[in-house]
Amino acid sequence: MEREYGLKDSIKLASNENPLGPSPKAVVAAKRALKHAHFYPEGSGFYLCQALSKHFKVPYESIILGNGSVELIEIAAKSLIEKGLNIVMNENSFSLYKIATLAMGGTVKEVKMTEDRCHDLKAMMKAVDENTRMIVVNNPDNPTGTYRPFSEIEALLKEVPESVLVIIDEAYKEYVRKKDYKSAQCLLEKHSNLLVLGTFSKAYGLAGLRVGYGFSHPEIISMLHKVRSPFNTNLVAQEACICALADEEFVKKVVDLNETEMAFIEKELKKLGLKFTPSVGNFILVDIPIKAGEFFEKLLREGVIVRPMGGFPYSVRVTLGTRRQNIKFLKATKKVLNL
Ligand SMILES: *Cc1c(COP(=O)(O)O)cnc(C)c1O
Predict the structure, then answer these.
(1) What does R_g of the chain's alpha carbons equal in angstroms?
(2) Residue 80, Cα to own-chain centre: how many angstroms?
(3) Ligand 1: does its nearest atom lie under 6 Å from the Cβ of 247?
(4) Any ligand 1 atom below 6 A from CB of 14
(5) Cα 19 to ligand 1 centre (Å)
(6) Is the peptide bond between 143 and the residue preceding it cis, with omega within 30 degrees of 0?
(7) Whose CA is nearest to atom 11 of ligand 1?
(8) How far is the CA of 235 from the centre of ligand 1 (A)?
(9) Distance from the alpha carbon of residue 142 to the mean position of ligand 1, in angstroms
(10) For residue 140, cis peptide bond before it (omega within 30 degrees of 0)
């Protein structure tokens, strides 16, 4: 892109990556692990699963690793979906669920979000029919950054029939500092049809190493194990993630920065007269007065990459960066919109 547009120092705020990079402890571990790269990795990621079990207090038998949590989404679809079956999800949410379902010949029932761009859980429950095998809640949601309180997730699980796998995708859980929010993992004991997803790609800053994890009932976990490929997470990534998990100081620094920068961006967007959806993630969906594609192109010429999203013709998703990056985004926005 820099070559094509003749730019230098462009910034990418398009994929919700971590502006502070990876945890330094994870980098040390990854380098150390490279010396053993001639060995195949531990097939099921035993030591990383053990570390996750300890960290999150989830039984070892209830944990599975994926090559990114998107692989677990694909594995779940491969295990459960075929022609004639469907999944229920929020409209315009993270597209991988749709792609994985369509690839298996299934269909997707997309439920309209509420006016304030939240999952409409009641409407989603109503959309469940006898052919539904999965219902997906991104909590927090991507790309809106909205969330549903724990009480509503609890109510959803009480309501949904056991034949439907409830996937709660918590890729951004570390960033949320709301009293009424908590991970759905504490519902695992009560509900055997729950799959909670997490990832090392966001707050841990390890998107390039591709590790996600799922928590579920041991029977669901063994069903998923049958479908995954034997060495789906690699040796370097497993070692790095064990150390990343232990580096709580780093995650705190990441989340603190995100909180400060979210407040800054919100304040500055208000000054510019731009509306946005209040977000609890590491990104923000900003409404603009011109077509998203056009705004994206114009910002590109200023060296700022943001993400236009399907279903939101007049909004772009902007990943929060460092203060310097966020100022660059705001300045470029002001310029291209003549504000
Ligand atoms: C970023 C993201 C993920 C993480 O994907 P990985 O494959 O773990 O990198 C999962 N779900 C949602 C909703 C996301 O935004």
Answers:
(1) 20
(2) 21
(3) no
(4) no
(5) 16
(6) yes
(7) 171
(8) 21
(9) 9
(10) yes
| Pocket test residue of 67, 94, 136 for ligand 1, highest count of atoms within 8 A of CB | 94
Q: At which of 191, 225, 246 does a domain end? A: 246
Instruction: Indicate whether 241 and 277 sit together in one domain.
Output: no
3-state secondary structure labels for all residues of 82-120? CCCCEEEEECCCCCHHHHHHHHCCCEEEEECCCCCCCCC
CA distance 39 to 272: 55
Q: How many Å lie between the centroid of ligand 1 and the Cα of residue 337?
A: 31
190, with CB counted inside 10 A (0-12, 13-18, 19+), is: exposed
Is 194 in contact with 216 (CB distance < 8 Å)? yes
Length of the chain in terms of residues written: 339
Q: 273 and 201 in one domain?
A: no
d(CA 12, CA 6): 16
pTM passes above 0.85: yes
Instruction: Name the closest-CA residue to atom 3, ligand 1.
Output: 171
The rounded Å distance from CA 199 to ligand 1 centre is 7
What stretch of H or E contains 153? helix 150-159
Mean pLDDT of 201-221: 98
Does one domain contain both 149 and 46? yes
258 lies in which domain range? 2-20+249-336
Does residue 17 line the site of ligand 1, with CB under 6 A?
no
Which H or E element spans position 65? Answer: strand 63-66
DSSP state of 38: T
Same domain membership, residue 275 and residue 241: no
Tens digit of each residue's pLDDT (9 = 90 or more) over 307-335:
999 899 999 999 999 999 999 999 999 99
Q: Based on the domain organization, do 206 and 255 belong to the same domain?
A: no
Can you tell me the distance from the alpha carbon of 318 to that of 272, in angstroms, rounded to the nearest whole number? 16
97-127: pLDDT as tens digits:
999 999 999 999 999 999 999 999 999 999 9
Count structural domains, the chain: 2
pLDDT of 9 higher than 90: no
